Amino acid sequence: MNEQFERAMKIMRRLRSPGGCPWDAEQTHDSLKRYLIEECYEVVEAIDKGDDGHLKEELGDLLLQPLFHAAIAEERGAFTIDDILETLSDKLIRRHPHVFGDQDIKTSDEQVANWEKIKKEEKGEERKSALSGVPPHLPSLMKAQKITEKAARVGFDWEHTDQVYAKVLEELHELEETMQEGNQKRIEAELGDLLFAIVNLGRFISVDPEEALRKTISRFESRFSHVEESLHAKGVNLKDATLEEMDALWEEAKKRENC
Length: 259
Hints:
Radius of gyration: 25 Å
Number of helices: 12
CATH class of the largest domain: Mainly Alpha
Strand content: under 5%
CATH topology of the largest domain: Helix Hairpins
CATH superfamily of the largest domain: MazG-like
CATH architecture of the largest domain: Orthogonal Bundle
Order of helices and strands: HHHHHHHHHHHH
Number of domains: 4
Number of strands: 0
């Protein structure tokens, strides 16, 4: 493994060196941000497809990003890939004292709490807010979930799932009232409140809202493709089809999913 890892790093250094690849040589930490995000989502897609060959390839594409950033940092004399790996290994050992030490931890919840405690000690300073530490650029649903989790850790939380469900209904009713008033700014705010309450409900029923919505979008795309393909097979243009025709094909696609 070390041989292949070093080979990949040497290739990256060669690509950025004089006489290498102009595009690779031009990249910076900032210019690579979008590719890092894109590669993460492509790995998720490969996992969903259950294709090991595709997953292997996409994980390689994702791994390219740390190698890229390490090469750029190495050129600046900031840090190397070895520094990254050493920092990671040391962190994993420190934050798993029940594995690499003599601390007694029996459950995942205990480990999460201890991880946060150690993380806080490592930072060496008191954070201004219990909500600090959530990356600002996370997708909104994911960020909302992180925020509610942090609030819950300090006791700002509902006691029962039915209370959270009631809050969702309350927010839905408030949105309905605001829509009747026609104030677009308030409608946006109430819709946001509703989405936030739904994210919180997801946390209580152990459903990741980002994952749930992503799968729903995937199902929608699949069903819509069935509608398009079925109409095309009949020689009917999508724009010329009636809503009833499309609804019937949509239901047909749903039944196929459950077979």
